[in-house]
UniProtKB/TrEMBL annotation:
Keyword Transferase: yes
An MF annotation (GO) of this entry: RNA methyltransferase activity
Record protein name field: Methyltransferase domain-containing protein
Keyword vocabulary terms for this entry: Methyltransferase, RNA-binding, S-adenosyl-L-methionine, Transferase
Domain of life per record: Bacteria
Protein family (similarity comment): Belongs to the class I-like SAM-binding methyltransferase superfamily. RsmB/NOP family.
Residue ranges occupied by any SAM-dependent MTase RsmB/NOP-type domain in the UniProt entry: 154-430
Lineage, top ranks: Bacteria, Pseudomonadati, Pseudomonadota, Alphaproteobacteria, Acetobacterales
Amino acid sequence: MTPAARLSGAIDLLCAIQNAPRRPADATANAFFRERRYIGGGDRRAISTIVWDVLRGWRRLHWHLRDISGDISPRLLCSASLLLGGETMENVRKLFSGERYAQKPLTSREDMALKELEGKELSIQKQPIAVRLEYPDWLDSALRETFGNRLPDEMEAMLGTPTLDLRVNLLKGSREAAIRELRRESLQAEPTKLSPWGLRLDGRQPVTATQAFKDGLVEIQDEGSQLVVAAADARGEHRVLDYCAGAGGKTLALAMTMENRGHIVACDVHEKRLDGAVKRLRRAGVHNVERHLLVSGDKWAKRRAGSFDRVLVDAPCSGTGTWRRNPDARLRLTPEDIQELVIKQAQILDRAASLVKPGGRMIYATCSLLACENGQQIDAFLKRRTDFVRLPKEQMSELLPAELRNKAQFSLTPLRDGTDGFFACVLERVVADVKAEETAEAAVTTPEA
């Protein structure tokens, strides 16, 4: 595709994303490219890069275009992103030639608005801090509660392009073997600093087309997510429950740490997500996993109360820790979403707790930056359930790096750790609490989607 055709494709994709405001942009992009299989891999990456640059700079781009009359169209946003990224007005005009596969020429209104941006920078000190750092105004106090005076630096790191992290599947081979296999296909992977199984690649890379991926030697998984699994310390003699398993990313990693022994139950309320795990499990060579769909009125949880050594709760959350990868999520999030999520997380914690055996552990994790979804959620749970405590630090998993092994509760950020934003807490069930058990048992119903 020509540069003009790529820009035209990016404008069409951005239109599709705007027309589905509550749908994740990556899901819209996947559907967009499925319907246009004639677009090759390199062109898909180029188109996606243009669109994701717009999404990452959404508030700043609108700030620069704030004085323009009428709607701020995808044409204007993509063009403004190119200009504020260093492109010249002359070259932008050429991309709107009106020729085959190119967009129609810029209107006088568009040309005048864009010409004002030539030579300017996307971020400037004059912008309000929430605009410059691309977060909703209403989240300012919550983010300051988490980061304090580190807020500008932490949120600046959230604006960067994320790396592509892989987890080596030790059931299929070593980290060194995976590095060699990827290099044979011209992908330069380096070991991650924190995860013992992680590899890191720069930017968007065609990993799923490699033989290492097809053979199940590597899986795409952020390093922070890998560390959540490390914190679970699941072993071959354990019965393990992945309570919000989704498509099974952490399930696969748990099976690896258990060396394909023991028993894992992967649960979710979405059948499509669980079905999506089948192919991944088969590719990874995993055979100690049972899938279970949670449905309304299901007695499954009551029959298995107190029977699991490990229960992993990767709770539904705001996803604020994944804004580098999913910048569109900033635009969809509302205060009402947070309120609903905090209630849902508490309910899920209570239900999952009833499934942990005495002496067993529950690992609560989110990809959120917000205290109300993280530490405060744990504090509230421990007040309700006196039979749980934070795991003593000397019992934390040796799979974790030393800097994360000194406490039962830890957080990760792009700035400090180079990962997505994650929170994890390891809880131990220490004694039977009859009153808490009765309360929890009465509450055990299917978690909401």
